[in-house]
Each structure stands twice: as C-alpha cells, then as structure tokens.
Amino acid sequence: MSYRLYIPGPITVSEETLRAMTQPMIGHRSKDFVALYQSIQPGLQRLMETADPVYLSTSSSWGIMEGALRNTVAKKVLCCMNGAFSDKWLDVAQRCGIAAHGLRFDWGKPVDPETVRTELATGQYDAITFIHSETSTGTLSPLESIMAVVREFPEVISIVDTVSSFSTLPIAKDANGMDVLITGSQKALALPPGLSLLSVSERARQRAASHPGRGYYFDFLEFHANHEKGMTPSTPAISLIYALQHKLVQIDNEGIANRYARHLRLNEKIRLWGRARGFSLFPEEEYGARGLNCFSNTLNVDLEAVNKSLKTRFQCVIDGGYGKLKGKTFRISNMGDETDETIGALIGALDTVFGELGA
Ligand SMILES: *Cc1c(COP(=O)(O)O)cnc(C)c1O
Q1: 154 alpha carbon to ligand 1 midpoint, in Å?
Q2: CA-based nearest residue to 93, from 115, 126, 123, 122
C-alpha cells in the first residue's frame, strides 16, 4: 500500500524522481561519473549560496554531523540544544571522546544569540554546533544573528545542521560565514534517504588538516582531494546522485525564489488551518519552522487514531510527535514537492478525521 508522507522526513518521493534513480549504473571512477558529479555542483552552490565545494556523503546526516566534530574540534565544542536532534549532538560529541558542553534552551525556544556570546566569551571553545530548523519541535533559530555572534570569535568553527530547512528558505552560507553546512537527501529535497551533503569552508579544512583523529570515511581532506577530481572518496550511492541531479533541474525550472515562496505559502496555509481548529503552534509563532509545523495537541486528540484513519481512508500520514513530545504534539511537513493541491487535500482529510474524533 502506498501512502503520502506528511511526516517531517523522510517525505514522499515523486514517481519522476524514482525514475531518475533507475538510470544504468556507471563506474564511480569513470568520466561519466565525473560529469554527473560536476553537473550538480553549481546547483548545490546556488542553493547554499556558497563558492565552497559541496561534498556528497553516502550516509544519513548523522554521519557527517559526527564527522564534522571529528574534523574540527581540537579543544571543546559548544552544542546548542533546543530539541531532540540538537540534544543528541552533545551525546554524539561525548561518544567520540570530544570535550563538549551543552547550552540548553527550552524545547520550542530558539537558540539565543546573546547566551551564545556569553558562553563563547569564556574562551574555552573552538567549535559550535546548532540546528537551524529543530525538526522535533518545528523551531527555527535566527541563523543570521547567531552567526553574527559566532563571527566575533575567529577561532570558533561553526557547524550548522540545515537538514529540515535547506531549500525551503534562503540560507546564505558565505555571507554568514558558516563553516560547515550540513543537510540530507530525505527532507526538503524529497529524495530517498541515504545521501547527505556538506559544504566546508577553507578555514574548516585548514583546521581539519592540523587535526589528527579525523578517521577516514568522513575526512574533510579526503572529500576535498576527491572533489578536485570530480569524485567521492569511496563508492557513493550513484542512484541517489542521479535523483539529486534530476531534483536540481526541477528546482531550476521552478526558480529558487518561487520554491521559497511556495514553501512559505504552504507552511502558512497549514498554520492557519491548525489555529482555526484550536491548536496552538508549539514554538513561539515567530520562530516557527518553514518546512513543517509542530502543533501542541491542546485538544488532546488521539493521534494514533488520527493516523490510522488518515492512512486507511486517505492514504496519508502525519507525525504524532517526536521523542518526549509523542502524543503531546503533532507535526505536518510541507517540504519537497508539496503543492497547493496536495496540501489542500491533506487539510480536507484532516478536517474530516479531526472532526470525527471530536476536535
Ligand atoms: C532528520 C534530521 C536529522 C537526522 O538525519 P538522519 O539523516 O536521520 O541522520 C538531523 N537533524 C535534523 C534537524 C533533522 O531534521
């Protein structure tokens, strides 16, 4: 049975994208691969607003999130925590044996730049991690203000997770001086899982060069040396790269500005629907994510019953809350290929199902 995924990742992959993946296999050291690899660089650099290379990693995003720590932290990393994914980053650093401190904000609150400044000013840190769009709570942190603070500390390498915001709204890597920008295939790019993308500044590469213990699979220097030849360090998920190539052409055809406008419009459409039904947004309104909405389950609806009904009668699912917010919040994605039509259909289905459950 196939059903449409309105969960915040993985999301629905279009037939067209799936077809792009069925192209014949090529050798990863062949000219054909080099052409494929090089063909996607300009599109990725445009989306990241960067002149730095964009490396492709055959892993989920956590692979390069861990890798980024192992490449850049010599002293201590400050991990900004405001939800399940950002909280996990502290745990990951510690498991790698890296000195780390967690800067905690309440779930649903954005990362506060002033608090970041106070902590970085202690001089203990040479790296910082934060999540642009904390997917577990649907909270967008003010990337530009945080980066303005980080830039005051030239020894601090910034590692920014844009997994659920990338390609839903402008993210200017170079203008903001972001060092390591990380994203994954299965969120707003609407590709199957398995590929992650990272763009690394020269500064961060220099840090890596003087830093032992980078390992092999996620070594920035390996990525870079192979990038120069139009390749990846090891055999990549070539089918996913075909899908990415197809997706970038689609994005170009739609126009990046039109894409951002579409995500804003659909995001607001769902937000208005939720409000009208009596649900409040889980994060503070002005910090709501752009690729999804996370609502508090203020009406105490049985979310498992909602999804069961959505799935069997309307062939779609939403998310019933992540981690400690399970049952207390629900999340709806508007990432990827969603249109006014598909979001309209979802809202119709939600009205029916919530109505029947007395909400
Ligand atoms: C989904 C997500 C991740 C985890 O990505 P994986 O691809 O499962 O490793 C990390 N950070 C954020 C913000 C996410 O939304």
Answers
A1: 28
A2: 126
CATH 3.40.640.10 in the chain, residue ranges: 22-252
Q: Establish whether residue 61 lines the binding site of ligand 1, counting it when its CB lies within 6 angstroms of any ligand atom.
A: yes
pLDDT tens for residues 307-346? Answer: 999 999 999 999 999 999 999 999 999 999 999 999 999 9
Class of domain 4-10+256-356: alpha beta
CATH 3.40.50.920 fits 22-252, yes or no: no
Instruction: Outline which parts of the chain fall under CATH 3.90.1150.10.
Output: 4-10+256-356
Burial class of residue 211 (count of CB atoms within 10 Å of its CB; 0-12, 13-18, 19+): middle
Output the CA torsion 207→208→209→211 (10° steps).
Answer: 90
Model pTM score: 0.97
From ligand 1's centre to the CA of 163, what distance in Å?
6
- Which of 163, 183, 198, 325 has the most ligand 1 atoms within 8 A of CB, as the residue to mutate? 163
Distance of CA 114 to the CA centre of its chain: 24
Decide whether any atom of ligand 1 lies within 6 Å of the 233 Cβ. no
Ligand 1 neighbour 85 (Cβ under 6 A)? yes
pLDDT of 1 over the 90 cut: no
